[in-house]
Amino acid sequence: MRLRRGCPWRWWVPLAWFCHPALRTPGDVCSGVLPACGGQLDPANRVLGHPCLGQRIWSRGSLLQSGSMCSRCGCWVWSGLGCQVESGGGVMCPPLPVDPLGGSGARGSILRVIHRRGEAQAGAGLGPGGLAGGQGWGVPALTCLSPRQTVEHGFPSQPSALAYDPVLRVMAIGTKAGAVKLYGAPGVELTGLHKETATVTQLHFLHGQGWLLSLLDDNTLHLWEVCQKEGCSHLQETRSFGLPGRPGCSPGITRVTVVLPMSTGVVACLGTEGGAVYFLALPALTLLEDKTLFPDEILQSVPDDYRCGKALGPVESIQEHPRDSSRLLIGYSRGLVVLWEQSTRAVQHVFLGNQQLESLAWEQSGKSIVSSHSDGGYMVWAVSGAGQRTQQPVMSTIPYGPFPCKAISKILWRTCESGNPFIIFSGGMPRASYGDRHCVSVLQGQTLATLDFTSRVIDFFTVQSAEVPEGGFENPRALVVLVEEELVAIDLQTPGWPTIPAPYLAPLHSSAITCSCHVSNVPLKLWERIISAGEQQSPRLSSAAWPIDGGKNLAQEPTQRGLLLTGHEDGTVRFWDASGVSLKPLYKLGTASIFQMDCEHNDSLNQAGEEEWPPFRKVGCFDPYSDDPRLGVQKIALCKYTAKMVVAGTAGQVLVMELSDEKSEHAVSVATVDLLQDREGFTWKGHDRLAPRNGPLPFAPGFQPSVLVQCVPPAAVTAVTLHSEWNLVAFGTSHGFGLFDYYRRNPVLARCTLHPNDSLAMEGPLSRVKSLKKSLRQSFRRIRKSRVSGKKRLNASSPSSKVQEANAQLAEQAGPPEVEMTPVQRRIEPRSADDSLSGVVRCLYFADTFLRDAAHHGPTMWAGTNSGSVFAYALEVPSQEKFSERAVEAVLGKEIQLMHRAPVVAIAVLDGRGNPLPEPYEVSRDLAKAPDMQGSHSMLISSEEQFKVFTLPKVSAKTKFKLTAHEGCRVRKVALVSLASAGSEERLENCLACLTNLGDIHIFTVPSLRPQVHYGCIRKEDISGIASCVFTKHGQGFYLISPSEFERFSLSARNVTEPLCRLEIARLQDTSCFSNSLTVTPKLPQANGTHVPRSPEGQHSPTDSDRSPEEHPDAFSPGPIDSPNSSMENPLDTTGDITVEEVKDFLASSEEAERNLRNASEDEARLTGILIK
Prior knowledge:
Blueprint: E1 10-14, E2 40-41, E3 47-48, E4 84-85, E5 91-92, E6 110-114, E7 145-154, E8 159-165, E9 170-175, E10 179-183, E11 189-193, E12 200-206, E13 211-216, E14 220-229, E15 232-242, E16 256-261, E17 267-272, E18 277-281, E19 286-287, H1 295-299, H2 304-307, E20 315-320, E21 327-332, E22 336-341, E23 346-352, E24 357-362, E25 368-373, E26 378-382, E27 389-390, E28 395-397, E29 408-414, E30 422-427, H3 431-434, E31 438-444, E32 447-453, E33 457-463, E34 478-483, E35 487-491, E36 499-500, E37 513-519, H4 524-537, E38 552-553, E39 563-568, E40 572-577, E41 584-590, E42 616-618, E43 633-639, E44 644-649, E45 653-660, E46 664-666, E47 669-674, E48 697-699, E49 702-712, E50 719-723, E51 728-732, E52 736-741, E53 746-752, H5 772-793, H6 799-814, E54 841-849, E55 858-865, E56 869-876, E57 889-897, E58 904-910, E59 938-943, E60 947-951, E61 956-961, H7 963-967, E62 971-980, E63 988-996, E64 1000-1005, E65 1011-1016, H8 1023-1027, E66 1030-1031, E67 1036-1042, E68 1045-1052, E69 1061-1062, H9 1072-1075, E70 1143-1145, H10 1150-1166
Parallel strand pairs: 23-27, 32-42, 47-49
Antiparallel strand pairs: 1-6, 2-3, 4-5, 7-68, 8-9, 9-10, 10-11, 12-13, 13-14, 14-15, 16-17, 17-18, 18-19, 20-21, 21-22, 22-23, 24-25, 25-26, 26-28, 29-30, 30-31, 31-32, 33-34, 34-35, 35-36, 37-39, 38-69, 39-40, 40-41, 43-44, 44-45, 45-49, 46-48, 50-51, 51-52, 52-53, 54-55, 55-56, 56-57, 57-70, ...
């Protein structure tokens, strides 16, 4: 055991020794804890997948009896542990076996057991066996925390394969990253990931048996099994197979081109580049060498004049006879098609095609086949027993001829009771005119529809009955097409073949996502109004049910309605139902119609002209092109109680909107706010503002704009907030911030935050004239400054350096080798005041709190900037009855400057009980408790480097945590979340969730700022994922793992959204040997192939094991009390990083200001050297 110096009550103990004694063999599952523990040893005797990591916590007490149960986490203490209390109050643990990985160096194999002094008397307030229970610990939030990734929303990135099981009614999608995703009814989702990072080229179901074959581009075949565990289904890889090469031949001839699992479920056929057909036994994936069919056997049945010394080419298609499973239709690239009888190993029929073959399909009765070719045509061949050879097809046509056309890559023939069959094929477009179109054509009789997609077609299938009686018809219900960027379902039973709205797999990136926002607990009335507005937007959609409805969703119905809003590059805002596993689109809001566009947007592609040929019909919603980059949405704010919304964009436009159930036609009021305030010396070099349209404009039901506020200069909006109870909206850019009264439609406040050297702020994000010379000059200045300061620090003659050197030598001599040193704080360089873009407004906040004095509270507005400045304004807001009579007034109350000038990421005010202030209208509508206005309020300022809590109204430091100095990272996202306890839903804990630039999430208690959990969530290289992260109010979050996918994670032990489903499978043979060893582990976050595998505990980042203790301190415990990072609620006698001169109070009287200054001076004289930096 290794004792951390300065904290003698903290121990590191191997996790494996807290499990049941029976857990000793690698692979054993822990049985000595309550159900769902899931502890498992790997071959190195490390415990894997343990959800209790970091949650077994004992307070100092009497003897910890063996076999006792922790009342907090419900886990049993390992027999023979026997921790005892020493006479001095410390904790003495008995000797334990050595961790096979070398003590505490491997974070994935240890459990941190923390003993705290002074929490309770020995034996008092303890649970069974002397274990602490309830409130004895002082870290109650740990029972509410269980961080992990849960589900992926959106469309899989880079799909490459598609399969459908008509018996189970589920489909599977493979990706280029090696992921396999299985979908059924909404909520039924299974995910697997190949061990090899290779592209999935083909997927094939063994119908009705829960088996899935996947072919990778490395020529390996993998068998996946849907296993049942604890009542839920899971996708597990069970076998893999690689086709051996033929002696003396090139390895390429055994490359698999076609895979066909037979309907019997016991054999799979593999077609290869060399023209051979191999047979595999299922599910063992063993090669049946005696059944291999080589091209030489086929050539014996081919006429000599057709043979001509040419090879048959690769096998392009293998199709099983619909009525006789022993007969196979085999097509070769050269154009030859043969009907092969397996039992007699003979060629029954030969079809002598003379055009390069692409695809084959059977007619349901087995009397005809259809073949598609590289010239853009297809042929129908008759299958009869009269002759063994057929040289001419029954019909041959090029649908989009006569000019040269592209190949038809796949074709289907589906019989229909109406008489005319469906001929469905992909490709075949005229090469010169429409060779760049991605189309699937549907032909029935004389009716032809050319479905035009905006991305490449991957594959497609039809949905029909699994069993078709002899002489019956297939009658396909729907056509499902997978393209690179979306999944589209077409209703084939409704005239006009409309699109069926998908309940999942929606293309989030139909236009690039630029921002996102989550709204929790949406009222039912607002929810229904949004759904109604969305339904009126798409009247041409089919009313048919989603055709892929296999499996059963076992997850409980969501207890609340969650709304995810995404802003896009084309100026749209999309509303998504994020309540459950499936992310369903609800409504689409467009803002482009309000402005004058150089190129007016039109939907001419949606409706083809009557004389146009081919008869294109645009389907799908993926449209990555934007009319104007200035339309991009940057910030969104929504009030769920008043249905008011603010949308801010790239060109400084701020739109105030209100939900209306009726269509209307009205003019939009336009107001301009000059944020430069006539400051001289600044010239805007960026893009122009968007010109609004004049006169009344028509608006459909939904959110309709009422006011347009245009910032000057028209820079991108960087922050926005809405307070619908006060009828105010605040917005900020890189030049300053403004306050607007949208009820009276007039500006209230405009403040410029520019520094005289902020030249880059005047160039805009779309400008290309940024000064490289100035950037280089500033970089060299920083390097020179750091070198000079480093030389000063290394001056050996200085007394301080000698003291530090002596302390270091003393520590090396006195400290035993097992002792770990307290992490050294990193030195944080103060940022220069003239850094470019220092005036960017990072956050805005409204609060009803104490700003003038401690006796009177009122409306306030807070603004934080990139240079560490905080502006606080006292607002004079009239009552609702006098809104039209009196105007809102804003008076500057305080101006604060952080010492290191770190950007201010977030600001929040806590009431007298330490709880965040409720949202507007929550208290008046009895939806939340009224805030405590009797006790003193606190202000939480989150900068990129640290968190600080100050008392109000005097702005004196109360608590702080220096994250950058402590962890070496910077804050990117911050949110106050409310977490419910795993044991009781009524017990809520307010915590501060922080995402860093390393992708780690840190959880702190508020207002004490005690660190609780350090969770590695996002790869530090994933810059877009970190930038896109958004937290929910109840401890969940979303971030982009690809342009089209959100990863959902949960920090809460109770509020979890994850897929729980079951597929009913009746296999033809027993496969218990494959599923008995299945160990269900938490969902891995790399299912899309973009993540580095992590250990399932999730309590550490992927690089934790590579960090030294000095680089990575304890993740679950606060620092020692005497540490500079101590977060105990001890009143500090200084203002931390804020000096007296840097807090300007504009509201206090002259006598009070002098008194405050005198008291502060006395405190500084009395407590020198306590200023915390």
